[in-house]
Amino acid sequence: MERVDLSFLVEGLTVLLNGREMVRVTKLDLSPGDIAWIDAPSGAGKSTLLKGLARLIDTKGSLSLGKVYAESIPAHEWRRRVTLLPFPPVPLGETIEADLLSPYKLAVRKKFPPPSKEMMLSYIESCGLGTYGLSRATDRLSQGELSRLAIVRTLLSKPQVLLLDEPTANIDEASRELLEGLISSFAEDGGVVIATGHSAPWGSVNRRFEITGGELRGAT
Amino acid sequence: MSGGAIPISWVDMSLASIFILVSAAISLFTGLGLHKSLIWAALRGILQLTMLGFALRWIFSISSPLTVLGFITLMLFFANHTMLSRVKHPPKGLYFRGLAALAVPGVTVTFAVTTVVIGVEPATDPRYLLPIAGMVIGNSMSAMSVVLDRLYSDMRANSGRIATLLALGAKPREAVWSEAQQAIRAGMIPTLNSMSAAGLVFIPGMMTGQILSGTDPSLAARYQVVILLMISAATALGSVLAIFIGYRRTFSSSEVFTLDR
Predict the structure, then answer these.
(1) Which of A94, A214, B106, B123 maximizes the CB count within 10 A of its CB?
(2) Cα(A220)–Cα(A209) distance, rounded to whole angstroms?
(3) What superfamily would CATH give domain A8-218?
(4) Is B89 helix (H, G, I), strand (E, B) or coil?
(5) Nearest CA in chain A to B255
C-alpha cells in the first residue's frame, strides 16, 4: 500500500445536500495513526459530513489525502482510499466469504490481490465471528454480527482513511472491545479513522470533535 | 383488397361488447372495483381503433411518404408518453432520452423488416410499414416501461446496498448492476414467453388476422416468425437502452447517487 505521509486534510469545506449547506469544516488535519471521534446528537449532520468526506454527496472546498486533491481523481477512486461504512450495515454477499471478497469484485481494485482465506479467518476471529467459518450465510447473522462483518469487510478492502458511521450502535460491550482492537491496529498500520456516535467508547481515540451550529469544532 | 374476411357491422360490434358489460356488472355486484376502468378502457379501445381504421384508410389512399413518417413520429410520442407515465417517481430528464431509446431500435427494426426482409416497394408503403411499426414500437414500449419501473423501484428498495457499494469504490454501473439485471429480466419475460409459447398456446394476433383474411397459413406463419423475431430484437435492444438511460439519470456527473432525494 502507498502509505507515505498520508495526512488527511480538510480546509474550508461545506457539505451540500440538495444544494443546501448542511455542515461546515473550517479545518481538519489528521495524520496516519489518528483515531478521531465526532460526538453530536442525531440530526446534527454527522452522517452528512462523513458522506461529504467520502464524496458520496457534493461538497465545496478543499479535500486532500497526501498530495492528492479529491477533485483530481474520479469519485470512485477517492472512495477506494477514503471509505465510508454507512449505517445501518447491509450484507454484500450470500456467505461471509463472498461478502468479504465483494470489494475485490470492483474494477477500482482490479490491481490489488484479494485477501487470503487465512487472512479472512483471522479477521473474523478477532471480531468474534470465528466459530461461524467463512461459509456461514450472511442472512443468518444478527444485526450486531452484521455490523462487525461489515467493519471487517471494509478493513480488508484496505482504505487509507476509514469513515465509520455509528460503529458502536447495535453492538454489545464485548464486541465493542474487539472492534476497538481491529480499529487500533488499522490506525497503527498508518490508517486514519473518523468515527461518529453519541459517546466515544474507545480509549484509543486521540482526537475529539463535535458538531455545533452546523460547524465541526474540536472538543475538549 | 380486404381478401376473404366476413364483414362486421355495427350491430355485430355491439354484440361483442355485451361480454364486457357482463364482466363489468359482475365486478359491480361483487365490489371488486374493476368496472370503471374496464368500461373506460373498452370505450377508449373502441374509439381509438375506429379512428385508426379511418386514419389508415385515408393514409393508404393518399400514400404520401411524409404522412407515413409523420404517423410513425406521432406513434413514438404517444408510446414515450405511455411508457413514462407507467414509471412511478421517475428522475428528471427522461423524456427525450426515452424517445430516443424507443425510436432508434423501433425505426431501425421496422425498416429492416419491411425493406430488407419482406422487400416492400416503395419502402414507405403504409400497408406494411404502419402495422409493423405499431407492433415493434408497442412491444418495445411495454417492455421498456416495465424495465424502468422495476429498475427504479429496486434501486429505491436496495439503496442501502447501492450506497455501501459506492462507498467501497464501485462505479455507478457496478453499484446498480444487479438491479439492472433484475429489471431487464422482468421486462423481457412477456417477450420470451410469447416466443416460446407461440403456436403451442396461442396463435399470434397478426397471423390470426392474416388467416382470417384468407392468406395461406404457412405464408402467414412465415410473416409471423419474421415479426416475432424482429419484435423480440427491438424489445431486447430497447430494454438495454432503457437500462442505460435509466440508471445514468440517477447519478450526477460526480458519481453522486441522486435517486433517493
Answers:
(1) B106
(2) 8
(3) P-loop containing nucleotide triphosphate hydrolases (3.40.50.300)
(4) coil
(5) A75
